[in-house]
């Protein structure tokens, strides 16, 4: 008799949001080098090996069961028997197998919804990537995973030992219960949402009061931005069901050096790179608003009233200063804005943070309570997340992981998502967008690289320190569609 | 201002049937040889060339517009501007690029629904097929095309001259209006459905009377089968959203020779091959019913009261004699059954035929009036269609078309579809099935080849005439998933 469990409210919200124009899955694109001595059928063997798994762990073995007349709520059924020939797929890129072909394939795969009559994940092994590489695209529904948990799960299915081939398959690797319990930042966020939404009316009330208090305390010169102060942009309307995807990969040392010299955080540099790219991208389309774009930045906080139970997660509103042409001044405004936002959030109690977050983040709150859905002013213009990943090189059956890119969900009102993963000394950006609302997404990735170079030229005293070789390599390492 | 037109009832029915577990698109898989002197980037050039089209013909340029408060019915909007990078796709097979890899890819592509916010078609060019070949998978929604019209459209986008590269792209080739008017068998069928369903109650009444009359006239020894006399099988339950696909390709001369020797039609041989394969396939799964399976066979008729207006199309019920072990006796029963069924249909008036057909074929009638949907006895067990195609070799920009396979829609109550296209001296079978209800579909294709060999061994006086080379080649030419 398979175990059944009810969905928590957050899981339910992700499921309820799913629609053909808004599939709510998230994915990771992993790029590997083939081992130097790999046999020609290395990937066929890997696929065959992975399909031999017989043990499946949560959440890979659970399936959604819709409500029935006798059970008027959906449940997860565990220990579902997996059809691995379905879930584990072997694909190939057309020639020349460059980042462009990869980006187009990922965009198409990411546009296809998951099959809700099966466990909500797919694992695609993609051969034919130039320079002796291959890729893996792992897609999971947002109701069973989030970015941080996904990265940790992937990490456990690889080894730091180049010769170790004993790592269990992703779906067979035992997952420490912390990943699903109350000790991680992500599950804190889930708890915040769930708790707040249990009493949605009161949470909305508290958050509204908080919002009004904050608003009353700021004046024109205060760098603090609040939700719903963002201008309308092409990224904030209704979306269709098709996606675009582009990537950029940077040497982390470049970002760190820049942040030290400019006296700001790595996150601020991530924002400044994105801001510079967004400014040029929108300008080119005659679509740059007069007011600055607002980035929604997930932040991890220690509430002042409750430092014992680990961090609380919320969203800070960052002024991206896209109305400012000077890159130096733009970065300064970004830094002021994030510093002030974090300061305010750090002064809040845990309950205040959780309610504040719930009103921003909860899909249901966004969709229904506040009647957003891409028809009203956006809570912010674009999500810009920075997810920490493994710092040491990892190997999948002797194939070295070269880079790891997030492929995110977009939704009505949020047609563009910028997320980066750090891994082994590099920072890898995934740009996920709606095909219709965000044309020429590839250019955004290109302009990001140029925005980084511009910041380096501005802040680094000796232009010689810009390692042209690295910059060019980074420009070469992009995929798009 | 784009032209708008209302959907006819048949189009509307196909659209209304669409659901995640029952996408209502049909497709054709075309296998080509690369020209002998093809440049390495032949396919990239072909893709680029096809994407340059600027003229688009019906039905490729029309998009479905859902009802609005001011227009409470859906319409087609013509002259929609196409995003050809979306509709025309370049894919590749993983190595070794055999029929197995092709079958798995086609099964996956056929499981993905079309995007209803765009014109309802996709054209996939697939590289990496072994022996210097490539494939094209053309998917269209059943509301804008049927099998026969699809084959004719494809034909017009190719040339019978191996050196002709001037053929317009499929979506730019002017289509003679007959294809959409009342002169073809397919549009007759559409007219029959539409006409009958305008007065659904009366049509149902007439058909029921007809059914009762026919039933009263037959006794135990009469080979005539009527709708709803089929046994329940694994092919006739509810389906999921994923597909399997397998193919077989035969030299048409083998089929013709067999039909002449056995004194039956080519269609009877197609049925006998399928019947032999189905018998073994079901036996192996301990799922062969005691009563014979019933095949639903589209037939073209000249109504006795109205021979002037071209043929009427209906469905004959064929006894597949799957309860009979002896292949000779099995073919005899099949022939008796189809002869009797056609005889009865030929005695009907045009109105009787059309009403009779409507009750069998109309998706809405099946789904609602008769409350089928894979929960009640099936109208028949499996559709077996034989669609005539081009008799001369065709070329797409100098690449020779080697074979052309139908990839059909399946639905609740009809989880398996067997359709074959004839082309240039060969007969190509496409087996389309629900992934969950029809496991090991590939074996059905293999057993079909063996059923043909068995018939040849039974009927052809000199076993020497079985061309072993051809038989082996046919066995080799199958794809599956």
TrEMBL record, chains A, B:
What is the recorded name of this protein?
A: diacylglycerol O-acyltransferase
Reactions catalysed according to its record: an acyl-CoA + a 1,2-diacyl-sn-glycerol = a triacyl-sn-glycerol + CoA
The EC number(s) attached to this protein equal 2.3.1.20
Native organism is Luminiphilus syltensis NOR5-1B
Top EC class, one word: transferase
Alphabetized InterPro entries for the sequence:
Acyl_transf_WS/DGAT (IPR014292), CAT-like_dom_sf (IPR023213), O-acyltransferase_WSD1-like (IPR045034), O-acyltransferase_WSD1_C (IPR009721), O-acyltransferase_WSD1_N (IPR004255)
> From which domain of life does this come?
Bacteria
Cite a GO CC annotation.
plasma membrane
Q: Name one Pfam family in it.
A: WS_DGAT_C
Give the GO biological process terms: biological process involved in interaction with host; glycerol metabolic process; response to hypoxia; response to nitric oxide; triglyceride biosynthetic process
Its annotated pathway? Answer: Glycerolipid metabolism; triacylglycerol biosynthesis; Lipid metabolism
């Amino acid at each position: 008799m398979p175990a059944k469990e009810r969905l928590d409210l957050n899981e339910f919200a992700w499921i309820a949001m799913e629609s053909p124009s808004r599939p709510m899955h998230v994915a990771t694109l992993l790029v590997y080098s083939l081992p130097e001595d790999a046999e020609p059928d290395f990937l066929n063997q890997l696929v065959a090996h992975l399909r031999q798994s017989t043990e499946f762990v949560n959440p890979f073995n659970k399936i959604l069961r819709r409500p029935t007349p006798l059970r008027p709520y959906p449940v997860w059924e565990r220990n579902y028997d997996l059809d691995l020939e379905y879930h584990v797929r072997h694909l190939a890129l057309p020639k020349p197998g460059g980042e462009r072909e990869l980006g187009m394939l990922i965009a198409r795969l990411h546009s296809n919804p998951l099959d809700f009559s099966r466990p909500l994940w797919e694992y695609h092994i993609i051969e034919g990537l130039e320079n002796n590489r291959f890729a893996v695209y792992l897609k999971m529904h947002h109701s069973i995973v989030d970015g941080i948990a996904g990265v940790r799960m992937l990490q456990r299915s690889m080894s730091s030992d180049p010769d170790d081939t004993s790592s269990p398959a992703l779906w067979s690797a035992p997952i420490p219960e912390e990943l699903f319990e109350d000790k991680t930042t992500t599950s804190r966020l889930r708890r915040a949402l769930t708790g707040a939404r249990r009493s949605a009316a009161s949470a909305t009330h508290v958050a509204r009061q908080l919002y009004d208090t904050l608003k009353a305390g700021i004046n024109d010169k205060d760098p603090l931005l609040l939700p719903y102060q963002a201008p309308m942009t092409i990224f904030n309307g209704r979306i269709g069901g098709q996606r675009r995807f582009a990537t950029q990969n940077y040497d982390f040392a470049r970002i760190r050096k820049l942040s030290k010299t400019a006296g700001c955080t790595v996150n601020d540099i991530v924002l400044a790179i994105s801001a510079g790219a967004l400014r040029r991208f929108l300008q080119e389309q005659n679509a740059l608003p007069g007011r600055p774009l607002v980035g929604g930045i997930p932040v991890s906080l220690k509430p002042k009233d409750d430092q014992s139970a680990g961090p609380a997660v919320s969203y800070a509103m960052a002024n991206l200063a896209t109305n400012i042409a000077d890159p130096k001044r733009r970065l300064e405004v970004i830094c002021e804005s994030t510093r002030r936002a974090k300061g305010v959030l750090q002064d809040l109690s845990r309950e205040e943070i959780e309610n504040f977050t719930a009103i921003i983040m909860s899909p249901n709150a966004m969709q229904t309570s506040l009647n957003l859905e891409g028809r009203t002013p956006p809570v912010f213009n674009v999500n810009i997340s920075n997810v920490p990943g493994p710092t040491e090189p990892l190997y999948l059956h002797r194939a070295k992981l070269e880079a790891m890119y997030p492929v995110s969900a977009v939704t009505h009102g949020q047609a563009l998502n910028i997320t980066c993963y750090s891994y082994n000394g590099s920072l890898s950006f995934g740009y996920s967008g709606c095909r219709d609302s965000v044309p020429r997404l590839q250019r955004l990735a290109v302009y990001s690289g140029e925005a980084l170079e511009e910041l380096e030229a501005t802040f680094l005293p000796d232009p010689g320190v810009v390692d042209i070789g690295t910059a060019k390599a980074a420009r070469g390492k992009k995929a798009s569609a």
